[in-house]
Amino acid sequence: MKRLFSRLLMSIVIAGSIVIGQVNAQSSDWQDLKPEVKKVLKQFEKNWDSLPEKKRKNLVLGAQRWVSMSPEQKKVAGERYKKWRALKPEKRSQLKERYHKFKQLPLETQKRLRDTFSQFKKLTPAQRKKLREKFRNLSPEKRRQLLKRMLNRQKKKAARKRH
Q1: Helix (H) or strand (E) run with residue 118 in it
Q2: What is the pTM of this model?
Q3: CA angle 19, 90, 43 (to 5 degrees)
Q4: How far apart are CA 70 and CA 156, in angstroms?
Q5: What is the structure's pLDDT at 26?
Q6: Is residue 135 a contact partner of residue 143, using CB atoms and an 8 Å limit?
Q7: What is the CA radius of gyration of the chain?
Q8: What's the pLDDT at 3?
Q9: What's the domain count of the chain?
Q10: What is the span of the domain harbouring residue 106?
């Protein structure tokens, strides 16, 4: 149970957001976009050429994902987007920063965190609440110690896998 607690806690601390795919090399010129992608991005058409290339590629990628989603997936994504927009700008910045830190981690570590977070999501709401409260009730020093121990365990585990 302690090991599960440690792994789940680490996931919560580090992986605070939805993982987004990488931008593909497809052209982001408006005239080259597929009609269904243009339909999703219609609100950007007038200013498309003035948007930075990276922004255009991200928008295209998001539109492609949207087009490929089932109605249920679109509903869930829409709800998540509403929650995202309702967050204060400081909270959104904090989550973006966590996401960028997560993406800088080794792929092996990212996979472990995703797996652990997946286990966390399988817990009942009451179990998740209890786990969060347990972490919040730790003193700052105890939190640091716990996180340090978890990181050390992960490093040792990763080193054993390599050998």
Answers
A1: helix 107-122
A2: 0.54
A3: 65
A4: 41
A5: 60
A6: yes
A7: 20
A8: 52
A9: 1
A10: 2-17+27-162
Residues of the chain with pLDDT under 70: 1-26
| H helical segments located in the chain | 2-14, 35-40, 53-68, 71-86, 89-104, 107-122, 125-136, 140-162
Nearest to 37 by CA among 59, 63, 62, 58: 63
Residue tagged 């009451």 (tokens)? 126
pLDDT at 147: 83
Q: Does 105 map to a domain?
A: yes
**What residue type is assigned to position 110 of the chain?**
Q
Tokens at 88, concatenated? 């204060």
Supply the pLDDT for residue 8.
42
Structural tokens at position 52: 């930075």
Can you read off the two tokens belonging to residue 16?
Answer: 């605070």
The answer as to whether 22 is a domain residue is: no
Identify whether the C-beta of residue 37 lies closer than 8 Å to the C-beta of residue 62: no
